Amino acid sequence: MSAWTTLEPGVRVRTSRCQDMNSLVLTADDHALLVDPGVLPSELDDLAAAVSETAPRFERVALAFTHPHWDHVLGMPWFPGALTFAHSGFADELEREAASVAHAAECWVTEQGERLPHAFRPFAPRLTAHGTAAVRLGPFSVVTYDTPGHNGNHLALWLPERGILAAGDLLSDIEIPWLDSPPWVYRGSLKTLHWLFEQEDVRVVVPGHGPLAHGRTTGYRRLLRDMDYLLHLEAGVSRAFQAGLDLEDTRKQLARMEYVGKDAAHAMNDVHAENVRFAYEALADSTAPGRS
Ligand SMILES: [Zn+2]
């Protein structure tokens, strides 16, 4: 199966062998926009070659990064001179997490039988935004949406001219909501995207990982499914907490829940167990003595 999917002329998605990570590639005239170029060196060679067919000068290439996790940030050295764009908090986090990003990249790339041609270096995007902002990247219009919950510096990117939502690590068909904070933070982001689905003509959702969602209904369903997962997670944890269960017993009980990626090859079981911890600790925190 080809790693490339063509959505329409000048709009393609390349899917990595690594966790089915998607890189969105738009080309127009002699410009290009890439969202999350990655992951493996051979794949970045392929992306750079494809882009250089229409945008041979990388100064006319923009790279947008949805969030500073290792699998989304390795592409920059393949596009020297390109404009870089991400959330305002991206650079600080990448700097802070540089060692663990480098370590994760090294492990995954080696496991796939490849080698990074250069050590990972944190970088500061030339252009940043936060909140809901309209941005012009070369000839491409982008509207940003703050979407924390998986990562505090996460942007979903809406491309109104193409009807494409580059959702970053949200709305995947192979991953559950992968929390880095209390579940209601993530639910707030789904509410934001809910408004986007209501107000805009979302024709394709390009998630960070796994199959694309074609048509508004398909994308919308993923959002409702993820909301449903979070509500069940919170309700289950809350019941266990009120019954006096500790975290380990709560995890055992919540392991019975059904969810996307349970026992799958790209298994979500550990992610779910961590999600239980985030929900449990948030609850314990909010009911601790001294809190009103
Ligand atoms: Zn991520």
Produce the secondary structure layout.
Elements: E1 4-8, E2 11-15, E3 22-28, E4 31-35, H1 41-54, E5 61-64, E6 83-87, H2 90-96, H3 98-111, E7 127-129, E8 133-137, E9 140-146, E10 155-159, E11 164-168, H4 183-199, E12 204-207, E13 213-214, H5 216-242, H6 247-254, H7 269-286
Parallel strand pairs: 4-5, 5-6, 6-7, 11-12
Antiparallel strand pairs: 1-2, 2-3, 3-4, 8-9, 9-10, 10-11, 12-13
Helix pairs in contact: 4-5, 5-6, 5-7, 6-7
Describe the main β-sheet briefly.
Answer: 7 strands, mixed
Provide the number of structural domains: 1
Q: What is the CATH homologous superfamily assignment?
A: Ribonuclease Z/Hydroxyacylglutathione hydrolase-like
**How many β-strands, per DSSP?**
13
Q: Which shape, going by the Cα principal axes?
A: globular
**Using only CA atoms, what is the Rg?**
19 Å
Separation of the first and last Cα atoms: 56 Å
The amount of beta strand, in percent, is 15-25%
The CATH topology turns out to be Metallo-beta-lactamase, Chain A
